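User: quick one
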Amino acid sequence: MNELKIFFADCARKVDEKLESLVPSAQTEPKKLHETIRWSLFADGKRFRPALLLAVGETFGAPENNLLQTAAAIEMIHTYSLVHDDLPAMDNDDLRRGRATCHKKFGEATAILAGDVLQTLAFQAIADDESLSAEIRVKLVSEIARAAGTPSGMVTGQQLDLEAEGKGVSIEHLEKIHHNKTGAMISVAAHAGAIIAGASKKEIEVVTNYAAQIGLLFQITDDLLDVTQTTEVLGKTAGKDVSAEKATYPAFYGLDKTRKLAENIHAQACRELEKIDMEKGLLCEIADFILNREK
Ligand code: GRG
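Assistant: Done. Structure below.
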């Protein structure tokens, strides 16, 4: 395993341990609700957002213990978004993280509640994190709620995405959808790591700009993988964007131009890190990982 793979595996293990401590056991009543949460959370997710938070936090000198609870909270919000995104009223999907989607396994009503409660547990985890000052906790709650919500967060992105289905949208509008739907939660993961580390205003600005680029890159590679990868490897239904007539980069530019664009955005993300004197290795490797990811 190369060093980055070891870093990701290590982050996933620690974040899963933290999630275990934050989420009620499957034996806690109502058992069905807690089994449902655990079905979606403890599946084969990449844990990319928590790993990014840990990477940025550690880059700016935060102790790991101060980062883990917020990292786990961000993974809970991300998982809630996947559960709700798969519902019949949204993307109507059967497969997620290599297993049946939450509503297929446990029914639609409980899947909706599981998503709701993953979100409330996430904010509770941040508010209750005794390793952080009250001021930092409030700042994190505020920034993460903004990124998950509206008018320029994940829920807005999802609404814009729904409205764009089957319509031709401009490239500027497509970028706005991706920036909100995918980019906001990726950016805030990096931002949260920097906040916890007590990074300077300039450091936060640089790392947030870097994260905005890799957030967009993550979605562009997601669009590419939807066309080029198999359902088996992705653990979710491949080819869904085309069948749902989604607005995507390959639909707009074609595959070759989209790959070129991804390379340019990757280069821009790395250039951003050149603006200050900092340890760039891990964050550049993360940008490389996104550009070249296979799932
Ligand atoms: C329903 C409020 C609401 C929001 C949904 C996340 C999302 C917004 C929709 C999922 C569909 C999708 C393709 C979104 C783009 C973001 C994205 C690439 C999600 C998948 O993230 P990964 O690849 O998944 O990190 P794992 O399972 O590895 O965590």
